[in-house]
Amino acid sequence: xxxxxxxxxxxxxxxxxxxxxxxxxxxxxxxxxxxxxxxxxxxxxxxxxxxxxxxxxxxxxxxxxxxxxxxxxxxxxxxxxxxxxxxxxxxxxxxxxxxxxxxxxxxxxxxxxxxxxx
Length: 118
Fold this sequence. Notes:
Radius of gyration: 13 Å
Structural class: mainly beta
Distance between the termini: 40 Å
Number of strands: 11
Shape: globular
Low-confidence stretches: none
Largest sheet: 7 strands, mixed
Strand content: over 45%
Helix content: under 10%
Order of helices and strands: EEEEEEEEEEE
């Protein structure tokens, strides 16, 4: 069982920055791909960014050039650095871990609220 705990959400003005953290229950990055997803009110959950076990990244078009996903293996933590935030980035952000050979082994954190507003 993989446990994920997100932190770092909050209220920020448009144009501001936030860094989200997702701490895992163990050293899983060699066999799990990590991802950040978000869900705005009344909308479906959508992919924001992914980071494979090999280090490859992928971003939604809406966040390319503004968001960066990274990880610290020693701290068992994945980050999402969010810059130039827009009101449309407002959502609950979720961390995900998916086994690289068995997608059925997929785990979610509890989510952290990000609100971009003046």
